[in-house]
Amino acid sequence: MKIGELAAATRGRLLQGDPDWTIAHGTVDSRKVQPGDLFVALQGERTDGHLYIGKAIAAGAGGVLMEQAVELPPGLPAVLVDDVRQALLTAARQMAGQYEGLVAAVTGSVGKTTTKELWAATLTPLGPVFRNPGNFNSDIGMPLALFGLSQRHRSAVFELGMRGRGEIARLAGILRPRIGIVTVIGNAHLEILGSIEAIARAKSELLSALPQDGTAVLNADDPWLSFLRLSAPHRVLLVGRDPTADLRILGSENLGVEGSLLHLGYGGEDVTCRLRLVGDGAVLDAALAVGGALAAGVSFADGAEALSRADPPHGRLRTLTARGMTAIDDTYNASPQSLDVALKLLRELPCAGRRIAVLGDMRELGDEEVALHRAMGQAAAQSADVVVAVGEFSLLVAQAAKAEGAESEAFAGVEAVAPWLRGFCREGDVVLFKASRAIGLERALIDWLEVTP
Questions:
Q1: Distance between CA 263 and CA 284 in Å, rounded?
Q2: Measured between alpha carbons, how far is 280 from 277 in angstroms, rounded to an integer?
Q3: 3-class DSSP state for residue 117?
Q4: Which residues of 400-423 are buried (b: 16+ CB within 10 A; e: fewer)?
Q5: Coil, strand, or helix at residue 440?
Q6: Gap between the Cα atoms of 118 and 127, Å rounded
Q7: What structural domains does the chain harbor?
Q8: CA angle 253–255–258, rounded 5-degree value
Q9: Which letter, b or e, does each residue of 91-123 get, where b requires 16 or more Cβ atoms within 10 Å of its Cβ?
Q10: Residue among 79, 1, 76, 63 nearest 27 (CA)
Q11: Main-chain phi, psi angles of 354, to 5 degrees
Q12: What whole-number distance in Å separates Cα of residue 284 and Cα of residue 355?
């Protein structure tokens, strides 16, 4: 999108600059500005982006979107609008509406990002694939991501996040996907929505947004499958271990830090593909991705072969090795369901030393947060020799683990974790790092292993 088009679409005013300047990427964080970015001066709950316009320009921002006029370098492209947040959504609607390729979207309580990345990989036989980067999955992030979409992309895969009822419906209404995947329904966002049924209803907003000739790809093993089907279009492709699944998971083999082997069956044909990911969660995500590729017209064999080349996303069951030790990096987010998957992987990975679970708080659990964190400690003790708890609930988690027979430690913040691990861990140990994103546990992992993120 050109900045002149942005001004016209949002009924804003191009204050200065070349109207033909093309926006390739946008950001709301002045600390993450790359040369040529559009800096979006968003007014948030804690700060005002207009205060950081100078820093953004100093970092190389090529243009500015704002709702308060400020002094700018001469000639720098700048658009003034009444409401920046609304302007982003308006621009997103125009960019998505102009896109001519296949649009696909995924949501769910667990596995959204991994499924998005794997789905994008399985669609590569059709040509170049766009996907929203990182956590650009909200009413702010998704419009920013769309600046990178172009007609050269034959397909586009979007992960849709959720902070409450109606958000997925709003985002899907802008994107208008033809294929939608719901990974699994769980109790992430329980604090916001209050019940599992309300979460299922919110996730089903993606299915309601699909056209009648679109396709819903659903988890055949999800207890909420029947509920989700009520919102789905006529065509549904079921993926899972259940015998009724269209695309069946016939089995999988854990190859340790090397990944997994996945055996799939579809239409009387069986394939085996090697994944660079580990754990049962990755197996389901991979199978759903192949199902999404089938719905898009990719052959079974081509989708499975493309899957074998997919790299694991950072912070999601990625294995790292250093100094004879193995780390499981699952620091991007945490919920009771994803914790179960991560702990199972910790149990199953080959280990010549001790199994250590470094666990941070889980967020958005509502009234169940105390009980679920106590259960976290109890479950961790069944999989780990040592449980290291971090955050507000660290004492509760550590005490619950200790009561179940595990050695435990508790830290209020992440800063002390890496120094403690350096003095405690030894060759042969396998260490799981798992927490909600807000905890920042990846900093302890990076500091301990001394690896780049």
A1: 11
A2: 10
A3: helix
A4: bbbeeebbbbbbeebeebbeebee
A5: coil
A6: 15
A7: 3-81 (3.40.1390.10), 99-307 (3.40.1190.10), 318-449 (3.90.190.20)
A8: 140
A9: bbbbbbeebebbbbbbbbbbbbbbbbbbbbbbb
A10: 63
A11: -110, 150
A12: 25
Among the listed residues 96, 206, 78, the one whose alpha carbon sits nearest the alpha carbon of residue 148: 96
Residue 220 tokens, joined: 């055949």
Tokens of 11: 């009924």
pTM of the model: 0.81
Distance CA 322, CA 418 (A): 14
Q: Write the pLDDT tens digit of every residue in 406-424.
A: 999 999 999 999 999 999 9
Between 300-307 and 112-122, two packed helices, what is the crossing angle to 10 degrees?
Answer: 120
Could you tell me if 79 and 67 are in contact, meaning their C-beta atoms sit under 8 angstroms apart? no
Backbone angles phi, psi at 223, to 5 degrees: -60, -20
Strand partners, 254: 260
Taking only Cα atoms into account, the Rg of the chain, rounded to an integer number of angstroms, comes to: 23
Tokens 């403690």, located at residue: 420
Bridge pairing between strands 215-219 and 129-131: unpaired
Q: Which residues pair with 355 in a beta bridge?
A: 430
User: Token digits for 83?
Assistant: 């409401």
Residue-wise pLDDT tens digits, 69-115: 999 999 999 999 999 999 999 999 999 999 999 999 999 988 888 89
Dist. CA 52–CA 45, nearest whole Å? 15
Give pLDDT tens digits for 45-70. Answer: 788 999 999 999 999 999 999 999 99
